[in-house]
Amino acid sequence: TQLLEQSPQFLSIQEGENLTVYCNSSSVFSSLQWYRQEPGEGPVLLVTVVTGGEVKKLKRLTFQFGDARKDSSLHITAAQPGDTGLYLCAAWPYNTDKLIFGTGTRLQVFP
Amino acid sequence: NAGVTQTPKFRILKIGQSMTLQCAQDMNHNYMYWYRQDPGMGLKLIYYSVGAGITDKGEVPNGYNVSRSTTEDFPLRLELAAPSQTSVYFCASSGQGRTEAFFGQGTRLTVV
User: Fold this and answer.
1) How far is CA B25 from CA A3, A40, B32, B37, in A?
2) Coil, helix or strand at residue A82
3) What digits encode the pLDDT tens for the residues B87-105?
4) Residue of A nearest to B103 (CA)
5) Which regions of chain B are under pLDDT 70?
6) Mutate to test the interface with A, among B6, B31, B43 (most CBs of A within 10 A)
7) What percent of chain A has pLDDT over 90?
8) Which of A35, B36, B42, B54 has a Cα-to-Cα distance from A84 of 20 to 30 A?
9) Are strands A10-14 and A105-110 parallel, antiparallel or unpaired?
10) Residue in A42, A88, A98 closest to B42 by CB
């Protein structure tokens, strides 16, 4: 059973388009993280969201934590080829020291 | 500023062979993790550790073993390698606040 489900699994878009990636769970988390991974590299942290309903912006990327702290979204405005990569959500479930990752969303942005 | 260092970067094993993937971090982090990543997929947790001498199973521990004798090192042992263990393996560490996980560059393992 996958604790963190991401959708869509794949996304192929043209430069300039907007997109949203979702991370859903039936569990509640104290915080949730988003990472980006480029080919041949390990994941790198983009943001951590902590408070239910929280919205964080990182240039053209907007992250939101659901009010119930069970889900999160990542919205990219005017995507660029440099945004291409694998986007992963991750969280530490309550009462555990395991860091669990989502199923991943592979984004390809064409010029 | 080394961070998390994994060795080797690539390895080809024959079925039934054994090997140890090395992971070292220089950030004095308590938490360390081993993940495997199959092509185009997310990360599956194999084993993790909350400090020297303490390890526990993750989601997919079968076929692997770990030890944590020091804070810095967290080696992953594969016994009797199988083709299903062909994957990219990532080691990660996190500090006490668990605000961010730092990853190594990965070990690409092929079992033939």
Assistant:
1) 28, 19, 9, 20
2) helix
3) 999 999 999 888 889 999 9
4) A42
5) 1
6) B43
7) 85
8) B36
9) parallel
10) A88
